[in-house]
Amino acid sequence: MPLIQLTNVSKSYTDPGSGAQVPVLRGVNLSIEAGESVAIVGPSGCGKSTLLNILGTLDLPDAGEILFDGEALASLKPAGLAAVRSQKIGFIFQLHHLMPQCSVLENVLLPTLALKSPPKDAVQRAEALLEQVGLKDRMDWKPAQLSGGERQRVAFVRALINQPRLILADEPTGALDETNAAALTDLLLTLQKSSGVTLVMVTHHRAQADRMGRVLTIHEGVLQ
Ligand SMILES: Nc1ncnc2c1ncn2[C@@H]1O[C@H](COP(=O)(O)OP(=O)(O)OP(=O)(O)O)[C@@H](O)[C@H]1O
Ligand SMILES: [Mg+2]
After folding, report:
1. Which ligand lies nearest to the CA atom of residue 221 in the structure?
2. Predicted pLDDT of residue 117
3. pLDDT per residue over 178-205, tens digit each?
C-alpha cells in the first residue's frame, strides 16, 4: 500500500480582485511509496506549495481523495488532522522558522510538545540527530548565531524529531548558495535513507531535484 495516494485532487483559489475562481490543481493523481524521495518542480505559481500544503493537511482540496497511510483525510475532523500532522509529518520551509528566543536544542524539541505523551528519550534523540548534522556543539546557541545553512540543518532535525512517516520540504535550499544547497540536499538524502522516512521536496534547483528518486513536474495543474 502506498504511503500517500491522491486521486483527482483539485484546488482553486478566489481571485481577490474579480472574485473569479482560479484553478491551480486540476485533477492531480499521485502515488508515493514509503521510503521514496520525490522532487516536485515547475514554474513559479504552478501550484507546488499548494500541493505540498494539501499533502501536509495544512490546506484542504476542493475535490478528490487523499489517502495517507491508509486513512482517508476527508474523514478526519480538525483534531484528527492535527494528530496526523504532528505525529506523522515533518515540515521544512524555505525560511527556517526557528524561534529566535529558543536555543537550538529547544527548537528541535518543540514538535514533541504537540504530542500527547512526549517521548522520554526526546532529548537523547535530539542530541543524536544534531550530532549527525554536525551541530552537537551548537545545541545551546540561538538561531541568530548560526549561518543560513546551519539554521536549515536545525529545521531539518526539528522535522525529524517525532519520527514522522513523511517529510515535506518546500524549497529548503532556496535561500542557500549552490554549495550549501548541495550540502543540505546530501544531508537530507543521507538521513532520509537511514531513517526510511519518505521525502517530498519542492525545489527550483534542478541539480537538487535530480538527486531524488523521482522528479515530478506540475504542468497546467496536473502532474507529469
Ligand atoms: N490563499 C490564496 N489565495 C488566492 N490565491 C492563492 C492563494 N495561495 C496561492 N494562490 C495562487 O495559487 C497559485 C499557485 O500558488 P503556489 O504557492 O502553490 O505556487 P508555487 O508553485 O509554490 O510557486 P513558487 O515557486 O513561486 O513558490 C498562484 O497563482 C497563487 O497566486
Ligand atoms: Mg511555492
Report:
1. 1
2. 83
3. 888 898 999 999 999 999 999 999 998 8
Are 11 and 25 in contact by the 8 Å Cβ rule? The answer is yes
- CB-defined site of ligand 1, < 6 Å: 13, 24, 42, 44-50
Q: How far is the CA of 62 from the centre of ligand 2 (A)?
A: 19
Q: Which residues line ion ligand 2, judged by CB < 5 Å?
A: 49
Segment 133-166, tens digit of pLDDT? 999 999 999 999 999 999 999 999 999 999 999 9
130, 105 contact by CB (below 8 A): yes
- What single letter denotes the amino acid at residue 169? A
* Pairwise CA distance, residues 99 & 213, whole Å: 32
pLDDT surpassing 90 at residue 96: no
The CATH architecture to which 36-60+82-223 belongs is: 3-Layer(aba) Sandwich (3.40)
Spatial distance between the Cα atoms of 177 and 135, rounded to a whole number of angstroms? 19
Domain ranges of the chain: 36-60+82-223
Q: Looking at residues 25-44, what average pLDDT do you find?
A: 96
Contacts of 35 (CB under 8 A, 6+ apart): 196, 197, 198
Q: CA 62 to CA 83: how far, in whole Å? A: 22
Work out the mean pLDDT of the chain and round it to a whole number. Answer: 94
Residues near 190 by beta carbon (within 8 Å), at least 6 away in sequence: none
